[in-house]
UniProtKB/TrEMBL annotation:
Residues 91-313 form the GCVT N-terminal domain. Keywords: Transit peptide. It comes from Buddleja alternifolia. Belongs to the GcvT family. The keyword Transit peptide applies. This is Aminomethyltransferase folate-binding domain-containing protein. The keyword Transferase does not apply. The lineage of its organism: Eukaryota, Viridiplantae, Streptophyta, Embryophyta, Tracheophyta.
Amino acid sequence: MFSLPAATSSRTCSLRRSLHAPPYHSLRHGEFRFHQKKKKKQYFFSLACALPFDLSPPPIDLDDPLETTAVAEAEVLEDGAENTCDDDDSLDAVDNGVAVVDLSDYGRIRVSGEDRIQFLHNQTTANFECLGEGQGCDTVFVTPTARTIDIAHAWIMKNAIMLVVSSMKRGSITEMLKKYIFFADKVEIQDITDQTSMFALLGPKSIKIMEELNLGDLVGLPYGSHKHYSVGGMPLTVAVGSIIAVEGFTFMMSPDAAKTVWKALRGQGAVPMGPSAWETLRILRGRPAPDKELTDEFNVLEAGLWRAVSLDKGCYKGQETISRLVTYDGIKQKLWGIYLSSPVEPGSVITADGKKVGKLTSFTAGTKSSKPFGLGYIKRRTASEGDSVTVGDSVVGTLVEVPFLREQLPPSKG
């Protein structure tokens, strides 16, 4: 059952989805009233507000140009106080309830053309040839020597592959991909960030919201699985998983639909999360970020991104270095979470027994109930979980595994 937020309770509408019901946008008013009376047990809603999610959407992967008005992101969150929340409250919701965060600043790059699968197969670390429509994966953009540039989340659609990348790498990755298109390649690269919006729904109660919004057919599907819907005739894609290792779902939609989707999620009890809480969550969960953990100082396996790396596929950028690292056990550093006794600046040297063993790359003061926390690279053979280190001049740190990297298990030696 779909309900609008309390602020619009006088215009409440509901939807029971039916495979036999025509989409709202295809019915004239009189036809709809007739159909509603005939099928009211299957498909009921009030004309006072637009449909939330229906079964006959237009193509989200832009078979035709996406013609929408680019709504400023501030408009989605225009209600000020209603749409801001204490960082601790939103972080608590991620662990015990459900939160929603606007990630529209992340880059969205559409790769189309007949050769798109082989092209991305050669340019990134994941095996795209084994994926089909409706599936997804993480992949990493690396240099020829396997140094990390960015993690991308890829959705395999009917006529394109959608890549979600970090906001600061959106332009450089788009240009890099265009640079590697050869004369005979049938590949097109399009940055559609400004033509789309994106939210993440996070937390253990996200499943309940999905079911309430008639999106429960995604629940239980593998990470990266996605399906297409529409909001009042405007395209919407929903995918399993979030950019951070938290149970949840990712929504990509037309900017014209963003306000409706945001209100729908808020109306179901999702607590809004702001940018500072999102950055705190990223660090606490251990998700590497460009210009911090993902730089030309560190390779993809030192960053621990095993889930995004195929060791079996054919030639691709960085493969030779990755193969040598695995074959000769050449991974020299490891990314750790570090509980800290007091605040300390990123970039601070990490020492153990008086010897330099690494560098702090990210820091957060944490929450009211948690200690300061950081991420840092440490020489692999000098540290284990639970070990103590010194960060900077005198800050005491304790090494811990972080959830995002805990899910990235290297292959068994057997």
